[in-house]
Request: fold
Amino acid sequence: MRITKVEAIELRLPEEQIADKASAGQNSLIVKVHTDEGLVGVGEIDSHARVAKAAVEGPFVHSVCTGLARVMVGLDPMDIRVINEKLYQSTFYYGRRGVVVQAIGGIDIALWDLKGKALGMPVYALLGGAFQKKIRAYASDLFGRDGNETAEKARIWKAKGYTAIKLGWAPMGQSERLDLELVEGARRGAGSDMDVLVDAGCCWDTITAIRRARQFEDYNIYWLEEPLQQDNLDGYMQISSVSRIPIAAGEGDSGRFAWRDLIERGGIHICQIDLARNGFTEAMRIADLAEDRGRKVVNHFYTSGINLAAGLHFLAVRRSTFIYEYCVEETPIRWGVTKQRMEIDDEGFVHVPEGPGLGIDLDEDTIDNLRV
Reply:
């Protein structure tokens, strides 16, 4: 079996539906890896879709600066780690971090999906087997405009069966009063029996973040996510050393070298690995690094059902897994790209797909409707 084509499909909501908010559910880049035997592997890249598409489709410049797709044509798709290394080495003049590594990650998902389909096995089995096949989900949403609107969001998701909720990003960071109001509202709406996670959205300096971590202790916060800018590694080490609330971060990091710095220099407690920015091959290496140093591994997910399924297969094989980020945003990209919705069960758990590969099927009508 040989790769014949790599297809990068940009999806985007209609312009009138694009909002100025921290949401990756407004566009996406879907990857299809085609073969001469008719099998097609599917992946997703969570990045700036147009830029990532250029990285996939770009022409040859020279031996270490080329588009990704042309490197893959003619290769055996079962040689996933070999392909991953070829892509990395063929792009290191303009890659090594960021969008190129994110693009390699999405392609890697498609290769694992393809291998699972070829062998008739789910990805989690190819990765070594599952420690668990269902994972407790937390509803992942954005803050309301104030404490009352945030409280209402927490009530809604609690009523739908979630046992944990995360609220994040703007308007947090505008003032101390509003920061505390938002967290108080989240706890008020959730009640005492629901876990509350806070995503600060990289909004504070180090001193302010340490102060907020202490103030939030009164609300029994499950973890505090990305309180600092993503490159403030010294600050992360400082807050991780003193906070009694676990510090989570890493959704914006791509590749094991960026992750090594965050884990070893940043000292975070919980590593949020996004499969659509890293892929299975790299995510497994990152997770080994994290767990060997006593960190816990979770997912980051705010795009389509492809990434949802990939994250489930990945967390199934990690021994430190304890909760799953479940994006609840209502957009066609979030819910319509795959035919399988993978919704939570009556106890608030989401189950790992059991079909070959990722265990999902694309809804081609949605893709045609949203294709750029």
Observations:
- The first helix runs from residue 49 to 57.
- The radius of gyration is 20 Å.
